[in-house]
Amino acid sequence: MRFPQQTWEKVLSKVKKAVVFMDNRCAEALHWSGGAAVLLEAGARNLKEFSSFEACGENEPKAVFVVSTLLKGRTIDIIKDIISLSHFQYCVVITTVAHSVHLAANSVTAEMDGNPVFEQFEEKLCEWMGNMNYTAEVMHVPAVFAPVSQQLLLTPVFAHLFPLLLPDLDALNAKRPEKKRFGNLVDVDTNSLPVELQLEIKSLAAVLNSMFEAAGTREESFAVGPMSRIIAGELASHPQAKTRRKTAPNKASVIFVDRTMDLTGAVGHHGDNLVEKILTVLEPLPGHVTDIQVDMLELTSLQRTPHSNNILAPGCLAQTQSPAAQALWETMLTSKHKEGVMEVRRHLVETASKEKLPIKMSMGRVTPEQLCSYMQLFRSRPGMLESHCGVLQLGLATAQTLRHPIMSRWDACLAFERLLLQKSCTSGQINYQVICHYLLSTGRRRSRPTTHLPLCLCV
Question: Which InterPro entries does this entry report, sorted A to Z (predicted)?
């Protein structure tokens, strides 16, 4: 889908000769759409963290702020701090939050012509720059999607948005008269939610509407779970969505599912996919929720010490600059574990062969040692490392996952989950004695302490 790239193209059109300040959540979305490289290629002079501790010099008159939040509160304070410490004459503020949500945040329910909230903020920017004749622009761009693959989009901006739980119901009822309290989460409506959560849902609905509008699609929504029902309802009642559905030529069915309706899919060990295991065992990339960090030390001549982890920047899974790495990533993401691992080996062998490196072919089972031996051929060859860094990072991620201590317990966890499922089907109930019995028996067969077996029961 081209929509994520189209949104970033709007941002890129504004960054020429500018210093770009970007918050973490927008940076993560950009991470999967080309990263900082696309900003620099578009003419940006620098990319900095969206922080009050950042500023620019006198020779940097233009700034672009890219934020994933409302233009209120702390966000405004940070923008003002940066401008006050700099010498800008041209400021562009891009927010992923739609103007309609800004109106709702200011308790404006009526539809208004233009973008009055953004226009008022433009005046504020000129005041902070110290000259009302300077240039200020404020706009909404829904740059929230991380295109993990051609068929999968994630929204790290909304990673913290989670379905309602029973404690949330208690909190909502505590503020309501006794006769108007909700008996179940299904009864909760949008207006009864905290204001911050209402705005998050409205923002998500606006983003989804923008995507469907770009695709010329009229959707038919289905919801599974209380929170999904609220989000689907918000999308259905979105003012622009009503107009879009009358004229859109394409049709699509959209299914909203609460994560709490399928917890076993997220925490079980029955998935047979290489990427699932990589995301499970490797540490997340700092500041990210959709990518992991790959230890790159094996591609250097540095010795591993307690402090060596801080010397090299970590690698990652998002390889948007290399067609070969992208093809490998798609296979890893969609294939079974065994097929994915074999594809990693094939790419490494082909890459080494093209560079005429002295590779030793070996068939049979793929081992992490085998993969590492292929990748170490590129060590101390800067040109080759640069040309093939995408494939090498995916190869390292695979090898580091295969030899991770957690992987040796994966099969034990899967066996326990299957036994637990069988017992629940035959007896019709599960009690702690049954759980302990199977934990102990699984531990004895595997000669492994049962306390090391991660366990999650979904009722």
Answer: Sec1-like
Q: How far out from the chain centre does Cα 88 lie?
A: 32
Q: Which residues of the chain fall below pLDDT 50?
A: 442-459
Chain segment 430-451, per-residue pLDDT in tens: 555 656 665 555 444 433 333 3
- Can you tell me whether residue 457 is helix, strand or coil? coil
Cα torsion through 128, 129, 131, 133, rounded to 10? -110
**Pair 16, 43: CB distance under 8 Å:** yes
DSSP, collapsed to helix, strand or coil, labels residue 68 as: coil
Query: What pLDDT is recorded for position 314?
Result: 93
Distant-in-sequence, close-in-space partners of 335: CB < 8 Å, separation ≥ 6: 273, 274, 343
Q: Which domains are seen in the chain, by residue range?
A: 2-140 (3.40.50.2060), 160-261 (no CATH), 274-406 (no CATH)
- Packed helices 337-354 and 274-281: angle between N→C axes, nearest 10 degrees: 90
Question: Which H or E element spans position 49?
Answer: strand 46-49
pLDDT of residue 448: 35
Query: Which pLDDT score is estimated for 268?
Result: 76
Give residue 435's pLDDT. 61
What's the confidence (pLDDT) of residue 433? 60
Closest by Cα among 424, 425, 420, 428 to 456 = 420
What are the start-end ranges of the H helices in 139-260? 166-174, 195-214, 226-236, 239-247
In angstroms, the Cα distances linking 270 to 47, 260, 278, 430 are 41, 18, 14, 20
- H-assigned helices in 215-262: 226-236, 239-247
Instruction: Give this prediction's pTM.
Output: 0.88
